[in-house]
Design goal:
α1 packs parallel to α3 and α3 crosses α4. This protein has about 220 residues and is of the alpha+beta class. The protein contains five helices and twelve strands. It folds into three domains: about 80 residues, Metalloproteases ("zincins"), catalytic domain (Zincin-like); about 60 residues, no CATH class; about 45 residues, SH3 type barrels. The chain is extended. Strands 11-10-9-8-12 form a five-stranded antiparallel sheet, with no helix packed on it.
């Protein structure tokens, strides 16, 4: 559906159901079509999914979220919410149908046997094909492309793959560990302690500074 038309539909349906003090906003969610943000009074729609869904599906998503707004945050997908959803014209389904179209994932992995695996985010751990071998086997590691072009992988991925090929494995250091930055540059050789461990990097406390460094660029000191 055209995003401008979907936006106008959402604004109209909010007004019809007495929620004219709410706003409509798009986001880039890939796994859920809509969201009700009670605190901000915002009905959120996924731009990628709205663009590939039919008008009927988009309308149902909007009414689904309007039902949440009408009954309040304490009800989730309970009977009260379901009754309201069906009353205002929604199907009352909790999730988008798995048969609904989805935007293509930008990351595509292909194994030596030609099997594929897609991802919406850049892979940061090494994956091997479970169809070729039920056990982790580097002979069947996925090679990744991004939007159809050979991908530049995260430093953590490259470091883990190198260690695995040498017979080793990646060990993440705990909060409080004393570490040294190994990558070339201004912070090469800096010693600090792990203050926090994020999804792909350490937050290192080095004196008064807090550095964010990928796992692969740090070693125990």
């Amino acid at each position: 559906m055209d995003l401008r038309d979907a936006f106008a539909m959402a604004e109209y349906l909010l007004e019809v159901h007495g929620l004219d003090d709410w706003e409509v906003a798009y986001d880039n969610a890939k796994r859920r079509a809509g969201i009700c943000r009670f605190g901000d009074r915002v009905l959120g729609l996924s731009a990628p999914l709205t663009a590939v869904h039919s008008e009927d599906d988009v309308r149902d998503t909007i009414l689904h979220e309007i039902a949440h707004a009408l009954v309040g945050p304490k009800h989730g997908h309970d009977a009260t919410w379901h009754a309201m959803a069906t009353k205002i014209g929604s199907t009352g389904e909790r999730c988008v149908s798995p048969d609904s179209p989805a935007p293509p994932a930008p990351w595509l992995g292909t194994c030596s046997g030609g099997h594929t695996l897609d991802r919406h985010r850049r892979p940061e751990r090494v994956l091997t094909c479970g169809l070729c071998s039920p056990e982790f086997d580097l002979a069947h590691v996925y090679t990744w492309t991004h939007h159809g072009k050979p991908a530049v992988m995260h430093p953590n991925y490259e470091a883990e793959l190198a260690r695995l090929r040498e017979g080793g494995h990646t060990v993440l250091l705990p909060v409080g560990a004393r570490v040294r930055v190994t990558v070339a540059g201004d912070w090469h050789g800096t010693v600090g302690r792990v203050a926090k461990r994020g999804r792909t990097s350490y937050h290192l406390r080095a004196g008064r500074q807090l550095l964010r460094v990928p796992f692969a660029w740090v070693e125990p000191a």
